[in-house]
Amino acid sequence: MSSLVVQAVGAAADAVDRHLTQLVQDEVASRLFARDATLWGEAAESEASIRLSWVGLARSSRPLVGEIAALRDQLRLRGVSRIVLCGMGGSSLAPEVICATAGVPLVVLDSSDPDMVRAALEDDLSVTAVVVSSKSGSTLETDSQRRAFVQAFTDAGIDPTERIVVVTDPGSPLDEQSRADGYRVVNADPHVGGRYSALTAFGLVPSGLAGADVAQLLDEAEEVVDVLSDDDRGNPGLRLGAAMAGTEPLRDKLLFTDAGSGIVGLADWAEQLIAESTGKEGRGVLPVVTPEGQEPTQGITDPSDCTVVVLVPEDGDGDGDGDDDPLGSPDAAPGAAGSLVSVAGPLGAQLLLWEVATAVAGRILGINPFDQPDVESAKQAARDIMAAGSSTSDEPDLVDGAVEVRAAGGDWLPREADGLAAAVEALLAQLDPSTGYLAVMVYLDRVAHADLSRWQSALVERTGRPVTFGWGPRFLHSTGQYHKGGPAQGVYLQVTGTPTEDLPVPGKDFTFGEFIAAQAAGDAGVLAEHGRPVLRLHLTDQAAGLEQVSGAVLG
Ligand SMILES: O=P(O)(O)OC[C@H]1O[C@](O)(CO)[C@@H](O)[C@@H]1O
Questions:
Q1: Which residue in 272, 282, 332, 400 is deepest, having the highest Cβ count within 10 Å?
Q2: Is the bond into 190 cis (omega within 30 degrees of 0)?
Q3: Distance CA 327, CA 251 (A)
Q4: Quick check: is 398 in a domain?
Q5: Residue ranges making up the domain that contains 394
Q6: Which tens digits make up the pLDDT trace of 189-229?
Q7: Ligand 1: residues within 6 Å at CB?
Q8: ipTM over 0.90
Q9: Whose CA is nearest to atom 16 of ligand 1?
Q10: Domain count, the chain
Q11: Do 292 and 407 reside in the same domain of the chain?
Q12: What is the pLDDT of residues 37-84, one digit of tens each?
């Protein structure tokens, strides 16, 4: 019996019934594992033909296990006990969940916020090793973080080539430069896209160096290859993909909640996989990560566009007797949303399961799950802003205390709006009551300001609609694609701040503060070009401004 259990109820169960026969008849599962690039139509074929090696990683990644163990021993002999990972999106989200679940410490630096970068640099460098991960080898955040660490090690009298390990695709600019400079480089499988790379060197190297058992992870994945590649109605990957994308009418918000799965942060990893894979051409499903302790539909007035995704323990209620209902209750109802799917299984198995389900969802939605066409537009806008040398030169629509208020994406801010509270109110009034969602996008130090995520539930209560909470620039590599490429349903609340103390990017003519400001302005610009309402709140004094914004948000 498979360690994976996927159960659907209500509209999600109807979706499974509706699509399973066809998926089995079309031999989608076996063709996927045979790397058939024609599964997503002609337009997707060329990209898919170079992106399907993830189906075989449970076996092909085995040689990495020994290599990682040897490297770990070497670093330990040099006194290393702290691992920092520099990388964005697919290059950091999997190690984050793997290490958190294994209970081993890993510092994930996926930000260009100067305060957050400085905090990572200032901790004990004498015991630190850094993994710099970038598939393309050209992601500006990762390159800037790498430069900062090279400089910091050098300043501390530590040879950076002894402490920095690079993970990248063969032949990337980072690969070539790092080898030339004498760094240790581990190449990843180039035929796997970033968000499908959990079981490549991107997921395994930082996790293994931090102390997670990566061999077990591969074992768990390998154990479910047979069931996931089987053209059978019981295939959990087909069932989950159908539940995610096959509801009619499409319930395009997936409200993730964890009911004691024991896997820490899986939804944050799945969020990128699903949002970046499906949110394009005006279609897609939006993952919404429910804050801990909150019911997923609580506060949502009309959840008829939502499916609840419950991550449950392998054993249902976790009491170890092996015979529980995985939905957590013997007579599990579909929940307030009328559509629910529950998922159980060990982490390694679930990584592969969600990848299969997302690929299946892509086929059902009729999109290419392997590209991210709208991410580049925000990157380009940020580059243009930096080249022009300024990011927030546009005049604010109004200033309220320590908060500059700018409205973009239409003429929705009334002229009589005289303060922050009125501007927030005006933005929220743009939400469609039955299909809309609010995205909160905070470009601040996500460790120091972790408590701001409480805004999410307050805003659900206030608006009656699903709310996503993303830290910039991290979310740009995740839900960022969906916000720009998915259905035009979102309204956006962006928060930026003047850094307490800026930090130069070594060897570049810009600072981290200028960089993150350009990223925020670039993303807002692209959203506005798509006609989406964006309220930009810039804190000229972070502490005072945050107090004001909290007041306006919490009402
Ligand atoms: O590993 P890279 O090439 O630095 O990219 C990081 C992330 O940026 C994206 O390419 C685009 O956001 C993601 O798909 C990817 O995971």
A1: 272
A2: no
A3: 20
A4: yes
A5: 375-554
A6: 999 999 999 999 999 999 999 999 999 999 999 999 999 99
A7: 88-91, 134-136, 139, 142, 194-195, 276, 372, 375, 477
A8: yes
A9: 90
A10: 3
A11: no
A12: 999 999 999 999 999 999 999 999 999 999 999 999 999 999 999 999
